[in-house]
Amino acid sequence: MTLKIYTKTGDAGETGLFGGGRVPKDHPRVEAYGDVDELNAVLGMARAVEMMPRIDEVLVPIQRDLFSLGALLATPDHAKMHEQLAKARISDERIAQLERAIDDGEHELEPLTAFILPGGTPKAAALHVARTVCRRAERAVIKLGHEIELPPVVLIYLNRLSDLLFVLARVANRRAGAGEVTW
Q1: 89 or 133, higher pLDDT
Q2: Which of 104, 167, 95 is nearest to 131 (CA)?
Q3: How many domains, in total, are found in the chain?
Q4: 160 lies in some domain
Q5: Cα–Cα dist 124/118, whole Å
Q6: 154 against 3, higher pLDDT
Q7: Domain CATH for 74
Q8: Range of the domain at 92
Q9: Which of 15, 22, 114, 172 has the fewest beta carbons closer than 10 A?
């Protein structure tokens, strides 16, 4: 039996949560995991633009992380939320991996002396868009955190990820020989 993609259960403006329960589609929880889902899609687009293996290899595990973070944010039960976090393997070590990727990228770059305008190559521009979507997702998670207790690593991860995406955008421009435009 083939499952249909449409269920009609959301036609009244509500959605089901992972692990049970229903909330309005504009609930802060749905906003948070929706923004994380959008970030994941934008990263998929960034990977599809101007393939750059070393950058794309960094992005694939991040997309997996984001899928897990979305599941965590969509889970109202605290015990199941912590199960999702353990399954996702998002820990202090994963944060340290992001920081090492930032440091590695910065070693390729000239130090910043001015603000730069987002843009350059299509790859870099897509990574800049991903960075801004990441910041929005971070704000949505902060807003949700005012209502429910979230593991601190979720915000730390998104904060570090936006920094990494900024560095990767600059690296993509450098590797393509594109300059940066300062403000």
Answers
A1: 133
A2: 167
A3: 1
A4: yes
A5: 8
A6: 154
A7: 1.20.1200.10
A8: 25-107+115-175
A9: 114
CA 135 – CA 141 distance, rounded (Å): 10
- Burial of 149 (C-beta count, 10 Å sphere; 0-12/13-18/19+): exposed
Asked if pLDDT for residue 86 goes beyond 90, the answer is: no
Whether this model's pTM surpasses 0.85: yes
Is there a domain that residue 13 lies in?
no
Where does 49-151 have alpha helices with state H? Answer: 53-73, 78-88, 92-107, 122-145
What's the CA gap between 173 and 143, in Å, rounded? 33
- Quick check: is 132 in a domain? yes
> At 74, which amino acid appears?
A
Inside any domain, residue 146:
yes
Helix (H, G, I), strand (E, B) or coil at 76: coil
Instruction: Give dist(CA 143, CA 165) in Å, integer.
Output: 22
Report residue 116: phi and psi, to 5°. -115, 150
What is the tens place of the pLDDT at every residue in 98-157? 999 999 999 999 998 999 999 999 999 999 999 999 999 999 999 999 999 888 999 999
